[in-house]
Records
---
Amino acid sequence: MIDALLLPLLLQAAPVAAAAALLPSDPLPGDWRAIPDDELLVMTLAGGGTVTIRLAPAYAPRHVANMLALARARWWDATSIYRVQDNWVVQWGGAPTDAEEKPLPAGVAKSPVAEYDLPGAFHGVSIGADPYAGRTGITADSWAVGGSADGRRAWLAHCYGTVGVARDAAPDTGSGAELFMPLGGSARRLDRNYTIVGRVIDGAGQLSGLPRTAAPGGVYLIAAERTPIVSVRLASDLPAVGRPHWQYRSADNPRFAAMVALRQSPKGMVALGGIDVCDVPLGVRRAQ
Amino acid sequence: MIDALLLPLLLQAAPVAAAAALLPSDPLPGDWRAIPDDELLVMTLAGGGTVTIRLAPAYAPRHVANMLALARARWWDATSIYRVQDNWVVQWGGAPTDAEEKPLPAGVAKSPVAEYDLPGAFHGVSIGADPYAGRTGITADSWAVGGSADGRRAWLAHCYGTVGVARDAAPDTGSGAELFMPLGGSARRLDRNYTIVGRVIDGAGQLSGLPRTAAPGGVYLIAAERTPIVSVRLASDLPAVGRPHWQYRSADNPRFAAMVALRQSPKGMVALGGIDVCDVPLGVRRAQ
């Protein structure tokens, strides 16, 4: 049976006819900008699946610097995805074979200050207020953000696919070695409480489709339930041949704003009034 | 490593000490109310997992009446979960062995009028406005709802675990035979566009943990990828011995309001300001 939920997605996936006119919401070629190879983390899982993370050095420089050092030290290799809590988070980076914590490599700060509340306003497309922020929007460089109504503070927002830094109770106790990704209905209550270091731009389903466990906190009790992480590498450290390249769709242009407006008032549906900042599609594509 | 994301959940799961004083946010015994057995749908999947759905006859009477007839006719038996689109929906009720549509049993209306925009205000706990509704809240009988600011319209909200009626383009083309459950970051844009017939109160992870597919719209291309549905039964049609009984936590009491307030300002965290209506935990428990 065909259903309306399915149709828009199939249409989206259909190839654009050669002669089709551009819509005001379609990106122009120049709207696509390169993600630097040293801001792309490629995580390879047992079984061969890969998860690609775009890092956010402009927003969490200390934690991202840690992550570069961790990747180069191959610290994550042979760790695992050890927690999948339904409607909440998937978490990885533990050392499954050790009861003890795995020592951090040289050059990795154990307690960088938290980086989840940034001075200044964001620039890009404004989406509106919501229960968690006086303003929300998408930055020019394509990050979902919240901000104070007075424009003096801003922060990256926890959406599906966001990569955050797990930590102990104190805000400065996450190094970036242990990471989580929200996979459920809402994780916005983590905004301004956890440092966001990036977002999954490809392969998020490899994480969200993992089996749930009834164990407390979603932490697999049996080692065999965990998904081994084979390797985590910066794209810039991979051989030039076969290295992945990605682009993001920039938001500081009227095409992006038109797409958001269309999303708020979809054709053939009751107009929504507004939209959740996490429900704005942040385009990415592979570069040639 | 212990992390703060994990701790509250572990504490939640810990048994309450016998001598512990009740907090203002703790439910009293009378706050728990029975869900009638004929408002509980038990779906058994291949492999033995079960998914329990609380039906919403007060909000979508025509579609729920259809579903009772479908369950009694065993219409869903040997259908399947045939769609799992990452960060969007899981969908079931198709007839995997037929290219044709499976005929509906006698007594099932093919085109009931849509039931997603209801006259009147809701009563319960008010949560506040959000991008999709002038008001939101939890009804006394524990449903997440949106409503117009003037209190003249209300509707059930699409949250993680909500069960909705898939349909063709026209609003009255869903019978309740094909159903979907949102599993991703936000499905609120479906509010006032799709009829909600219930919500999963147990076993949602059996659906959200299914493998994703890269196929268009998340529809498995290979029959073997689908998860067979063994049976779908009303609890009231199951043998009395072993029949499941469930209760919901009512929201028309100060304990529930205190719990929401606590959720908005969690201990040890930056206060959130507000909360998304889909992020309010709707308590359920098995009755003795």
Note: Confidence is low (pLDDT under 50) at residues 1-17 of chain B.
---
Amino acid sequence: MKQQLKQHIEKTIALSDREFDFVFSHFDQKSFLKHQFIIQEGNYAHNDYFILKGLVKSSHIGEEGKEHILQFGTESSWVSDPQAYHTHAKATLNIQCLEDTQTYFISFQEKEKLCADLTKMEKFFSKKTSLEQITLQRRILCLISNNAQNRYEDFLRQYPNLIQRIPKTMIASYLGVSRETLSRLSHA
Amino acid sequence: MKQQLKQHIEKTIALSDREFDFVFSHFDQKSFLKHQFIIQEGNYAHNDYFILKGLVKSSHIGEEGKEHILQFGTESSWVSDPQAYHTHAKATLNIQCLEDTQTYFISFQEKEKLCADLTKMEKFFSKKTSLEQITLQRRILCLISNNAQNRYEDFLRQYPNLIQRIPKTMIASYLGVSRETLSRLSHA
């Protein structure tokens, strides 16, 4: 499991075994059951979670009580509420497990200490934030494009292996279309 | 003008005059007239622009030819197409000037060189990316919240001094409401 995190970080920066052990000493481990929440709207959310195994959804509940799914997260991806994490505000997102999920996590405070002591980790986290920013930008372009077919194709591109693991009603919610429209799109 | 950039960077990290001169040597200057484009969809967009003076809008043209405004940028804010900048892909956004606009800009390549030579600038850009990520997240929550009143109040919070400088039709486009609905909101 440690190797999964090491390999992930080494896609951006090189680390000796000793350096990785130092990095790893700033992380903790936590497991969640299907349906449990990793982050709940209204609570503080100081941690950034690296998913070792499992599947989660990140969502927001609109004024009218309707759930809007922002993104899904699976093996070797990170999940957090970026606003709550970086500004120490209360979470505006919910992150809930769709499968039993195992994570390593790092608190904002530990991340700051780690980057001060091993400056190349700043580069890793900076690159990671850039990628997350790009995902959010793609999500915005999806949301404001009124073409459901494009949104469906973008979903398949972003999550090629998840189509079987995510309930159809959640894919429809992510795309902002009805269950019937999704059925039409997936048979097109 | 150099002082404006120095003060901006010094909100995140301390820089000696000599260090700032080194930072500044990685920037270029460019001015744009009202209506001109800083970034156009479909072109490469290697630069990140720091606005010294002026006002711009960042937008995407949907399939149906309708313009969707993502955000506005003004004095001491940064504008770019994050996806195009970080991945060297073609721009999916347009950034157009609503007023005559003066900028300093840094290319992705120069930014990488700068961060390698002066590692504390990595921390500055990392923090900047986090803030941009938060802005995108707020924008997503705005887009998926169906409450126009909330979106209008959020606009006022984010751009307290811009209400007089931005045409009402563009504010309506940003909020995703009609000109008539905006008029009702702004008189509520």
Note: The longest strand of chain B covers residues 67-74.
---
Amino acid sequence: MDHLSDGDIEINLKELSDWKRDEKFIMRRYHFPSFIDAMAFVNHVAGIAEQTNHHPFISIDYKVVTLKLTSWHAGGLTQLDFDEAKQFDRLYKT
Amino acid sequence: MDHLSDGDIEINLKELSDWKRDEKFIMRRYHFPSFIDAMAFVNHVAGIAEQTNHHPFISIDYKVVTLKLTSWHAGGLTQLDFDEAKQFDRLYKT
């Protein structure tokens, strides 16, 4: 899978208003009422990552979880990153 | 609880050879054979953090977990950070 052009990345980002681009990554912070809620979210994220074999960089700063996605094999962002970002956002809503 | 002096931090760090000081933090990277193993470790770390009500900054980069500890209430490193670091190391060994 080839990485996306800057134009395609911009189009994809318009659908993901809470995500920001950071060079070869897209990233988002998620806020939770407690550390336990944050960890529950991280465990669901890990399940999705294993299913798709596409693992985000995850950080947990007490009640704040940050996810960063890129496609190493493509040397940049691919559709896979944006599809997975949408999955994480749907998970967060529920 | 007051934060430790530089001298006391050095003494504590001698017992924790895999940890490095980074300003107000101590940090260590742990390597795992798989992402699932890394996540299992993180979940145990989270359990310890909840028990002690002292939460490290956690990051998960596929098979590598980084933990960073500091004591916000003391404005620096306290004995609590070093005691918890030892708990995480014991957990890693098992």
Note: The first helix of chain B runs from residue 6 to 14.
